[in-house]
Amino acid sequence: MQSDLIDRIYECAVVPELWPSVLDDLARMTDCRGGLLFSARKALCWTASDSVRDVFEDYVNDGWFMRCPRRPCLMSQAAPAFFVEQDFWSEEEIGADPIYRDFFRPRGLGWSAGTGLQLPTGDSIVFSVERTLDRGPVEPDHVSTLNALRPHLARSALVSARLSLQRAQGARETLDALRLPALLLDETGRVIEANAWAADQTEQVRFGAGQRLALADKSAQDLLSAGLKAIHAEPGDSRSSFPLRDSLGRPALVLHLIPVRRSAHDIFGQSFALLLMTPVSRDRAPAADLLRSLFDLTPAEARIAQGVARGQGLEDLAEAGGVSLNTVRNQLRRVLEKTGCARQAELAALLAGVALGTA
Description:
Elements: H1 2-11, H2 19-29, E1 34-40, E2 44-48, H3 50-61, H4 64-67, H5 70-75, E3 83-84, H6 91-96, H7 98-104, E4 109-118, E5 124-132, H8 140-162, H9 171-178, E6 182-185, E7 191-194, H10 196-199, E8 205-207, E9 213-215, H11 218-233, E10 241-245, E11 251-259, H12 265-268, E12 273-279, H13 287-294, H14 299-309, H15 314-321, H16 325-339, H17 344-351
Antiparallel strand pairs: 1-2, 1-5, 3-4, 4-5, 6-7, 6-12, 8-9, 10-11, 11-12
Helix pairs in contact: 1-8, 14-16, 15-16
């Protein structure tokens, strides 16, 4: 069930009319009424489960979207996770808020779990599941279920957002429409198709013998090879977003490895995966955004990575997080594995030069 759902999530990347069905499944898994996907760059695009579509047409068309406090709260969070109302407001504050009092509750809604991604590409993405008022708040175990799927949702939604939630027409047209460096790979890492933006990345991205993709950053090359193997052997593995560093060891691009699944083959032929590259701007992207889009870290791992980037010791991080030193060491080990770093100092160097902040 989980691997089938993940395949369907990735199918939605270039067949976005399938998102409502996937959002329905997310809602059923969390005992909610329906789900939503909002994306915005220059214009707002959105889709929803049929069960809540009418409600959110009013939400958008009648101006409630711009007045709603949920989206700014989600976008302000550094942790790459889903959040519920109680993470931001008291019961009294929720009841008094005009959006909840005058819009959601009269329509039988009022509880949700949502997550936001603010990417250096300028894309803003929000997922949420919406629960009926009488059912009560979304429980922590359901939030954990959503968090386990979040990296897959984020990667697929990034592609859908770049395509403005429009169905892709063909491989070449799709790669060009993304307006970011992008390549189609077979399962060995051979390049089947590349757009002009990818061809311009000559310092970092090269095409070797037999059109095999060769990345200048060895750690990124190793993570790419591992990611391709994991797609084949472990479809639920989420370590498929990772940094491509320049010659000074600074992150220059974020590589997102996105499996080509199910009806997406109608567009991409027999390609095995789409490799999408997003820029890292040291002028615009705070560490919170970098961690959200870059490393597939859990909220606890993201806290450790930010602490290391700020020069905090492991003992201090353990005390601040209320956990044991051994727990922090295990979390750091997983962060190193996901970022392709061998040592704590290398992780700190990887994030050096990127503005820190809580977004």
